[in-house]
Design goal:
By secondary structure, this protein is of the alpha/beta class. The chain has helices spanning 18-23, 42-48, 62-72, 89-101, 171-191, 198-215, 222-250; strands spanning 5-11, 30-35, 52-55, 77-80, 85-86, 106-109, 111-115, 118-119, 130-135, 139-141, 150-152, 156-158, 163-168. Helix 6 (198-215) packs antiparallel against helix 7.
Length: 251
């Protein structure tokens, strides 16, 4: 059977998300899940939804992990979705139309995220265009450990329907993400050879709160907007403090 559209998902301990994610990808011709050696039921649930699952015991970072998933895809087009994201019926129709018309080599789409149950229409979180649909032979992921991006050789179009994103269901999720992402970003700072001072984290953290809550109108997102601004500030603060500590210890 000719595979026109492949969906790729990387996951680790995503049992609470993977079924809903794969349900929203049922319109795709092929669904590939690369599991990062989960300790929960992610693999069993993904296979139960008919996905092709490959277990990668070595975590190489988000960029390399997604490039590995990409190497397993056989479709002419690839749709990359995270386990906590959902493709609506309206977006699925638009995606199908886009690959049929083929007016561009890749497409970005707006992403509508929630924070503790509230849709965030401000705070720098919307429309948050992300490039997720592309011709398999014309794009790849950057090798960044976190906040990877798609590098496309060709014209990039833009879709209208949003990809929904549920990264933070509880405040505990925000704290967990902050710790993981700040550690990865700190490692990237250190690996680049960039030196940061003790005060870098303090100043950057304060600026991140001000930017999120005031400049990006986070206050219009209500109380959740304030919580998000604080979480962003803490993530920035700890990123630079971890980088400073790593740099200090290497001297």
């Amino acid at each position: 059977m000719t595979v026109r559209l492949s969906a790729i998902v990387i996951a680790r301990n995503e049992a609470r998300n993977i079924e809903a994610c794969l349900d929203s990808l049922a319109f795709c011709d092929q669904c590939i899940v690369v599991d990062g050696d989960s300790g929960d039921d992610t693999v069993r649930l993904a296979r139960g939804k008919g996905a092709s699952v490959t277990i990668a015991k070595e975590w190489r970072g988000f960029g390399p992990q997604k490039n590995f998933a990409l190497s397993l895809a056989s479709g002419d087009w690839v749709l990359s979705v995270d386990a906590d994201e959902r493709v609506s019926d309206e977006l699925a129709v638009e995606i199908r139309r886009a690959i049929t018309e083929g007016l561009a080599e890749a497409y970005e789409m707006p992403r509508l995220s929630t924070f503790c149950g509230r849709e965030m229409r401000h705070s720098g979180w919307y429309p948050d265009y992300v490039l997720r649909l592309f011709r398999r032979d014309r794009a790849r992921f950057s090798d960044d450990l976190v906040h990877e991006r798609v590098i496309c050789d060709g014209e990039v179009g833009r879709l209208k329907q949003p990809l929904t994103h549920h990264p933070v269901l509880r405040l505990e999720d925000a704290l967990s993400r902050m710790d993981r992402y700040s550690s990865a970003r700190a490692e990237m700072i250190v690996s680049s050879g960039r030196r940061v001072s003790f005060f870098t984290g303090i100043l950057r953290g304060w600026w991140t709160f001000f930017q999120t809550y005031f400049i990006r109108l986070g206050f219009l997102d209500g109380r959740e907007g304030f919580l998000l601004a604080v979480a962003n500030a803490e993530g920035t603060y700890y990123r630079y403090m971890k980088a400073w500590l790593k740099g200090r210890d290497r001297v």
